[in-house]
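Submission checklist for the structure archive. All mandatory fields must be present; incomplete records are returned to the submitter.

[x] Identifier: Cell division protein
[x] Organism: Sporocytophaga myxococcoides
[x] Residue count: 142
[x] Sequence attached
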Amino acid sequence: MSRSIELHQISTKKSEEKVIAGKMSGLISLHETVTWKARHFGLWLQLTSKITEFKSPDFFVDEMVSGPFKSFRHEHIFEVNQGRTIMTDRFDFQSPLGVLGRIVNVLFLKSYMEKLLFERNKVIKEHAEGDGWRELLTKTDV
């Protein structure tokens, strides 16, 4: 579900994220890229990420190719524990603008990004534990 382009758009509807280039639908896989357009802090931003590591079903990594950050790396790690899948996100990013970027991180960007990931994962969890995944996967190229 974390690789679903459609579910990504559903889970980020508050920022109006839409895919505008690259992998347009289905499940994104190794070496594929996707470009998103989204509204954050009142600004329309574009970000292109690429799946740089992939070992199904254990993990995948997406990294920014171009966009507003100096860099970012997002690891998605999956483990089975007592019959339940546990997903762990590791999200490392660097803001541009040196010292000013680090100040922005401390003041609000780190908490903003954590909230964004939390909300996204909440929607993924709802779809995975309910019936929402059925409709998405029937539309998806696996």
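[x] Structure attached
Curator remark: Helices lie at 5-11, 98-129, 132-138. The radius of gyration is 15 Å.
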